[in-house]
Amino acid sequence: MSVNLFGRRSALFLPASNPRAVAKAREAGADLVILDLEDAVKEADKDAARVAAVAAVATGWPCPVAIRVNGFVTDWHGADVEAVAGSSADFVVVPRVDGPAVLQEVLALTGKPVAAMVETALGVRRAWEIAESAAALIAGTNDLAADLRLPTSGRRPALQTALQTIVLAARAAGKPCFDGVYNRLDDPDGFSAEAGEGRSLGFDGKTLIHPNQVAPCHAAFAPLPEEVARAERLVAAASGGAQRFEGEMIERMHVEAAERLLERAR
Ligand SMILES: CC(C)(COP(=O)(O)OP(=O)(O)OC[C@H]1O[C@@H](n2cnc3c(N)ncnc32)[C@H](O)[C@@H]1OP(=O)(O)O)[C@@H](O)C(=O)NCCC(=O)NCCSC(=O)C[C@H](O)C(=O)O
Ligand SMILES: [Mg+2]
After folding, report:
1. Residues flanking ligand 1, CB < 6 Å
2. Do 199 and 261 reside in the same domain of the chain?
3. How many domains does the chain have?
4. Is the ipTM here above 0.90?
5. Is 18 a domain residue?
6. Is the distance from CB of 116 to CB of 136 less than 8 angstroms?
7. Start and end of every HpcH/HpaI aldolase/citrate lyase domain (predicted)?
8. What percentage of the chain exceeds 90 in pLDDT?
9. DSSP class of residue 266?
10. Atom of ligand 1 at shortest distance to CA of 95?
11. Taking the complete model, does pTM exceed 0.90, yes or no?
């Protein structure tokens, strides 16, 4: 099965063990939904969550839906991967990926596209190899902050190198990439600022933890009306080679970027 993960602005996480959240996620308007079996689910609920996730993905979704399995060093990983293999999930998310081997194994066992969470120092170091085997990269900023022993506040600046490495690796491999989650549930301004920064860094979209983050995420990742208007003018004006356009030099790559932006806006 193949699913196109490009052009997706939002990926909404929720615990597979929470039926009310599952119901809400169907109508949240996110571009992707990820039913979590890992950190959002208590140990006592792992088996029930796995069953619930398989049942949930079997019914109709308005967008591609994934299951995030537990990490490969855990007792639940094998059963999770087996369950995903027999499920209708469109893709699978693997946490704490520190090299391509686990992705290749999960791909072989499930036959589904595998999105890799890069959320350890080693994972960032190996982001290039991981990206080659992944269907998409997802920055796991909470785990990464913990792995880097960052203080609990003001972590984002310290993550810049890792975030840029993830974007570079994804782009070099021609894969989409998603920024990490914003933990503060009641801080729309902070969310929008971080989502805008993610777009500036080059991410395709952002992972989310609450339905109320979907609309501001889409707003942050949507091209601005003035960007669309400029791109339309630029494409119309392009004549090949270097030329002057509204006081700036443009060449082929600017035309291609404008075409990508227009495609995204559509
Ligand atoms: C964080 C939450 C536990 C907060 O829950 P709560 O206080 O109950 O939220 P609300 O009262 O505002 O909920 C209102 C209704 O919305 C539904 N809801 C809440 N969150 C979601 C969601 N993510 N998707 C769908 N629906 C959701 C509630 O069920 C309420 O519905 P109703 O009862 O019918 O009114 C909660 O938001 C939550 O669980 N969020 C997701 C947590 C999660 O999935 N975490 C794992 C991914 S994050 C991560 O691990 C990133 C990475 O690995 C890293 O390292 O950074
Ligand atoms: Mg994590």
Report:
1. 12-15, 18, 20-21, 24-25, 28, 36, 39-40, 95, 117, 119, 140-143, 180-181, 185, 209-211
2. no
3. 2
4. yes
5. yes
6. yes
7. 9-211
8. 96
9. -
10. 53
11. yes
